[in-house]
Amino acid sequence: MNPRALGAVVALVALTPLVIGAGLTPSTDGHGTHTQMGLPSCSWVVAFERPCPTCGMTTAVTRAANGDLLGSFLTQPAGAIFAVLAAAAFWCGLHGMIGGAYSVRLAGGLFKGRVWWAIGGILLAAWAYKMVTFGGAP
User: Fold this and answer.
1) Are 51 and 45 spatial neighbours (Cβ–Cβ below 8 Å)?
2) Residues 3, 101: contact at Cβ < 8 Å?
3) Is the pLDDT of residue 75 over 90?
């Protein structure tokens, strides 16, 4: 794929959750912000009154997109990391789109073996954190 086209795709995909998050109001409960987009309440929270593995991700991205990085991290650490990585991917994609750099294609090579284990570990640790800090169903 042409590096400029690839950069444009990466920039657009990375920017999308940040733009959506910027248009939402973060839930004060630390989860449930996704319902502002017309999505149903989390069935895991309703059924078990415990957070699901991605509980608070939308709220964390929304906080980050609105400039509250600390609040984002305290809400859901993995969501905060995702938001920061999405912002970095946007700028890298924009660089690739404008300059035709192959950096976007090279960055894709980072997602091999151990990186996936690290991502899984971060998600599990963030879920454990959310279990401890969870305030219950809204």
Assistant:
1) yes
2) yes
3) yes
What's the average model confidence in pLDDT over 75-102?
Answer: 91
Do 134 and 44 contact (CB within 8 A), yes or no?
no
Closest alpha carbon to 82 in 99, 62, 100, 97: 62
* Per-residue three-class SS string for 53-116: CCCCHHHHHHHHHCCCHHHHHHHCHHHHHHHHHHHHHHHHHHHHHHHCCCHHHHHHCCCCCHHH
CB atoms within 10 A of CB 73: 20
pLDDT score of 101: 73
Tell me the two tokens of residue 63: 């906080």
Distance of CA 85 to the CA centre of its chain: 8
Exposure string of 90-120, with b = 16+ CB inside 10 Å and e = fewer, is: bebbbbbbeeebeebeeeeeeeeeeeeeeee
